[in-house]
Amino acid sequence: MMNVKTIALAGSILAATATTSTNAEIIDFFPSGDNKTTIKIKNNEVEIVNGDKLEKKIEFDTEKTLNIEIYDYDFDKNLDFSIWHSDDGKGVYDIYRIFLYNKKTKTFVEAQSKCGDEFINVKIDKKTKAIASTIFEDNTPKTCHTKL
After folding, report:
1. Are 124 and 111 in contact (CB under 8 A)?
2. Distance of alpha carbon 142 from alpha carbon 135, whole angstroms
3. Which of 102, 94, 106 is nearest to 134 (CA)?
4. Nearest residue to 123 via CA among 109, 144, 99, 108
5. What is the per-residue pLDDT across 56-72, written as a single tens digit (0 to 9) for each?
6. Could you count the other beta carbons within 10 Å of the beta carbon of residue 120?
7. Quick one: which H or E segment has residue 134?
8. Residue 2: its pLDDT value, please?
9. Residue 37's Cα: distance from chain center in Å?
10. Which percentage of the chain shows pLDDT scores above 90?
């Protein structure tokens, strides 16, 4: 079975639920108002369904377990989500892909780190309203702050 994490937002009108079946996860949540989004993970493929419409399918090139986090990553009072997994080496760091909800189009857009190809070991910096992630320069870990 896959692990699923959900993070609740204080003061949010939104809810998340999870159901589990063999090798599959389904998460329902409401990013803004009554617009329901369903995220389905089966093996290494993720489907994003808004209402009853399939928005997109995303393949992940990993053998590690995929995890979901629901959070307002861009601090706009709408829920976004991330899919993350441990690195395929020794599993010492977590690799994130963050998807931001666009209230006007009612779709999700993948966020980009300003310091590299991916978000690694994401931490939310509420004070600066930024995503802190790890980057490596000459095998030395450093922190990158990305405002979304």
Report:
1. no
2. 5
3. 94
4. 144
5. 999 999 989 999 999 99
6. 20
7. strand 130-137
8. 40
9. 13
10. 62
Dist. CA 68–CA 34, nearest whole Å: 21
Closest CA to 120 of 147, 143, 89, 139: 143
Residue 114, both tokens: 């300003």
Mean pLDDT of all residues in 111-123? 92
Pick the CATH number of 16-112 from 2.20.28, 1.20.1630, 2.40.128, 3.30.300: 2.40.128
Give the CA angle between residues 136, 117, 146 to the nearest 5°.
Answer: 80
| pTM (2 d.p.) | 0.82
- 45 strand-pairing partners: 42, 59
How far, in Å, CA of 80 to CA of 101, rounded?
5
pLDDT at 112 over 80: yes
**Among residues 78, 100, 80, which one has the least CA distance to residue 32?**
78
Nearest by Cα to 97 from 140, 74, 67, 137 = 67
| DSSP result, 68-96 | EEEE-TTSSSS-EEEEEEE-SSSS-SEEE
